[in-house]
Specification:
The protein has 10 helices and 9 strands. By secondary structure, it is an alpha/beta fold. A 9-stranded parallel beta sheet has the order 5-4-3-2-1-9-8-7-6.
């Protein structure tokens, strides 16, 4: 089953649809109210790197006060030992890129694992491993490294979300209005007819999502991101080019001129 995580800063009517509610550490005073107002949702509290006033006693108190309806998102891997010892549910913001790393996270008993490429492009094997996965489908790039574009990145079209079941989708954004729009596109309508770059951050490549064929997803699920290893696969670029009306017009004009000569 696919679950959706939304930001605590959203309005009440919107949060009622959340499976999980993300809480920034500076907003932690909201937690007890959130648990009362949204009893079906799990609280995700992020502990930022270098948060000096955070203690494991505080985590234990929240575990008790929320009736164990809280999971801690840790940015610092050095914090995990007391969480393991005290049986407090947690996961890391670190994104696993290989099955070696995914198995390490599994052994550490994380509640979730974020994945990045190339593991992202072997989804059936990831799901078979049995570690609950979190995805941010609206982001093409989840690292600090810059790319010319995000065409070969770890983004997911709304139409293809079902292929990543089960997983938890993180949709919380800095801009509340955009977060609501993304929820409607990914969770409610599960469809997008416009430019893919308008909903996917760092894609930086034109292509109308409505014109992309269904064969796209079946290849991406198991391709292993071979394009980055040998450069022979150009499927993602080809399909986006075929979904770009301007490039199609240029192709037709070029072909027409060739035929005339």
């Amino acid at each position: 089953m696919i679950k959706y995580c939304l930001s605590s800063r959203q309005e009440k009517s919107f949060l009622e649809m959340a499976d999980e509610i993300y809480v920034n550490y500076r907003d932690k005073s909201q937690i007890l109210d959130l648990v009362t107002d949204y009893p079906k949702a799990t609280i995700i509290l992020e502990i930022p790197l270098g948060q000096s006033d955070f203690t494991i006693k505080e985590a234990l108190n929240y575990k008790t006060l929320t009736k164990e309806k809280i999971i801690f998102m840790l940015n610092d891997i050095t914090l995990i030992t007391p969480f393991i010892v005290n049986k407090i549910p947690y996961f890391l913001t670190y994104r696993a890129r290989s099955f070696y790393e995914l198995n390490a996270l599994k052994d550490l008993g994380v509640q979730y694992a974020y994945i990045d490429a190339p593991a992202f492009f072997n989804m059936p094997a990831v799901q078979e491993l049995g570690v609950p996965i979190r995805l941010t489908p609206q982001k093409a790039n989840n690292t600090l490294l810059q790319h010319k574009d995000g065409v070969c990145g770890t983004w997911v079209r709304p139409e293809d979300i079902e292929y990543y079941d089960p997983c938890t989708i993180d949709l919380y954004m800095e801009l509340p209005d955009k977060e609501q729009s993304l929820y409607n596109i990914y969770a409610v309508e599960q469809k997008w007819d416009g430019e893919l770059g308008l909903i996917v951050e760092d894609l930086n490549y034109l292509g109308n999502n409505r014109l992309i064929g269904d064969q796209y997803i079946t290849r991406r699920l198991t391709c292993g991101q071979s394009c980055q290893q040998n450069g022979r696969c150009r499927l993602c670029y080809t399909l986006l080019d075929l979904a770009n009306p301007q490039k199609l017009r240029e192709y037709r004009d070029e072909k027409s001129m060739t035929n005339e000569t």
